[in-house]
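Entry 12.
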Amino acid sequence: MEVGNNRPSTPFNEGFDGIHPNGITAGYFFSLGQPATGNIGQRAMTTGNLFDNQEPSATPRAATGKSAQTAPLATRMRPHTLAEFVGQRHILAEGKLLWRAIKADRISSIILYGPPGTGKTSLAEVIANATQSKFERLSGVESNVADIRRVIASAGNRLENTGQKTILFIDEIHRFNKAQQDVLLPDVENGTVRLIGATTHNPFFYVNSPLVSRSQIFELQPLTPADITTLLRRGLEILHAKADEDALVFLATACDGDARKALNSLEIGALTTATGNITRAIAEESIQKKAVVYGAGEDEHYDTISAFIKSMRGSDPDAALYWLAKMVVAGEDPRFIARRITILAAEDIGLADPQALVLSVAAHQAVEFIGWPEGELLLAEATVYCATAPKSNASAKGIWAAKADVESGRTLEVPAHLKDAHYKGSERLGHGKDYKYAHDFEGHVVEQDYLPVGKKYYEPGDQGFEVRVKERMEKWKQLLAKQRGS
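Predicted 3D structure (tokens):
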């Protein structure tokens, strides 16, 4: 089945000339029923408006000439209104908080956080078109403290002289260092500017806490295949191209929720095929190997290892192997993975299967001198073993409870009979006096005070080898009772 080209003659696309000058990074849509307007493709002056010399209520100025034709498809498809925006229904569905704030032009300081191609910059453009406030833009990559101060000074003058408010959009705000972010604090707090920050990094890690506390956080999710398909069909209209249905399905899935990647791949496919029809094979060549959304210093690093650990803890070897594969493909340090497996073996398996720790340490040591790609086999074996091993966190709970007592209570002194008695003069201090040597007693156990207060930190579980540990400890209780009765 082919889709594209056959546009119905309806008001929806009436007067559309096939070229829309605005673009979209994701979560967006374009209006076929409105004249092409806007020029976010041209970088705004640091102290100017996001859309060049836009007046507070003006529509962004139209891109003209070659700039509109040469801009990437994703850029030519940026939305102008909420009605044109595709995706992010969890925050932008009619009646939701952010939807109401945009409609009422009551945006407070917000931070838009999400993966690339999910609509952060596109949403900023929608807000710019909807607001009566002055809309300024800075870039976390290009701007400095002087730029920030200049925009804030202009905002203050504007507010005092005309009463007009200012919205400051900072793309990639996580790129600002602490000093740059600190410059914003007073004026965000007193309302001189309302901040819209966009970042692919978790703001709770990469944006100053005072700024986060003064802003509402909206997390954008990867677009669904259905959302991507909607955008791809609209993209075909702009490109005057066709595509097989299975090609669209492939692109909508392979892009990992990144609309920019899907639309740019669609454009490559359309421009490089003589027939103008994009087949599944052309779609596969156009998108090539997808990059795993993963970075060693970013959220995905921690989220993936968290899913990996929790899958092993939950005894799901299939899920654990998938998250392991994601880390392997993303180029994660094998030693880091091995360390996490070893920690899990001690914390979550413990004495239920002591071999888990042995195998994990062996895998850790072996991967050191084998490396990739064969090292994945060692990690896979350790992963499956730990995921399928009986589980117990009894020893982990024991040390956590003991630490809590040490940290919160009075430090206990070592009983005199347990103190070191191997040095000259220790006997005069009473060290070691009345100590009972366990090997001299039946079962190699003897009753004596090893702790000044009665505390129980370790309670063996009922899984795997720990069942035998529990039986052994019960036997010791019986022997101690026998010693007391004799």
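Annotation: The first strand starts at residue 2 and ends at 4. Residues 466-485 form the longest helix (20 residues).
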